[in-house]
Amino acid sequence: MHHAPLRAVGVAFLTHLALCVPTQVHALTSAELQCQGTIGTAGARFAERTHAALMACDNAIVVGKSCSTSQRDAVIALAASRLGDQLAQDCGQVILEHLGFPGECTDPDGGTFPSRSTISRAVSSTPPSLAWVPR
What we know:
With 135 residues, this protein is mostly helical. Helices cover 61% and strands 0% of the residues. Helix 2 runs antiparallel to helix 3 and helix 3 packs across helix 4.
């Protein structure tokens, strides 16, 4: 059997791995781990609450009822506020670059990225169909 193609694939993989792996890697601190978890759980909670509010309105319209857009918007605003509060509480002392941020969202303020409010906006404005993956 010829192992040349297998070796070529192995060499290509190892070369790619060597070029793409960050050169400085450190273990996350407990605060960074807590922040990382909060971004995931609080972001998911925000998405669930927003989706439920939007769906309730859409379902009401489909069956011929009215939708209180002001009530729907208040629910979404409250969810966004809670997201921001939770991120500020659990990520306030964390260097977010250690968690891989900034990711694919940009800073609309033009300031130093990322601020806690910018991450809150990035999480809350990302369409649910898109995965927000830090680099």
